[in-house]
């Protein structure tokens, strides 16, 4: 995704170690669903919007499961 072509749960793309740490510490793998929904106008279970096919596979991956995450968002960490 973005500048470093990170694919959640799959590839760091060209992200250097500092960016990888920031991604993990910020829990980006779980926040990615909301990002994709807003950025690509995805309507869960109804429309991919403009989400590219390669990211549709991320959306549906068991580790990510965006449909379930957006239906039952994780509790915020305090």
Structure notes:
By secondary structure, the protein is mainly alpha-helical. It has one domain. Helices cover 46% and strands 0% of the residues. The protein contains four helices and no strands. The protein is globular and about 35 Å long. The model has no long low-confidence stretch (mean pLDDT 85).
Features:
78 residues, mainly alpha
Give the topology.
Blueprint lengths: L16 H9 L2 H13 L12 H8 L5 H6 L7
Query: Biggest sheet: strands, sense, closure?
Result: none
Uncertain regions: pLDDT < 50 for 5+ in a row?
A: none
Tell how many strands the DSSP assignment holds: 0
Q: Mean of the pLDDT scores?
A: 85
Structural class: mainly alpha
Rounded to the nearest angstrom, the radius of gyration is 12 Å
Q: Into how many domains do the coordinates divide?
A: 1
How would you spell out the order of helices and strands? HHHH
Distance between the termini: 27 Å
Number of helices: 4
Percent helix, as a range, is: 40-55%
Strand content: under 5%
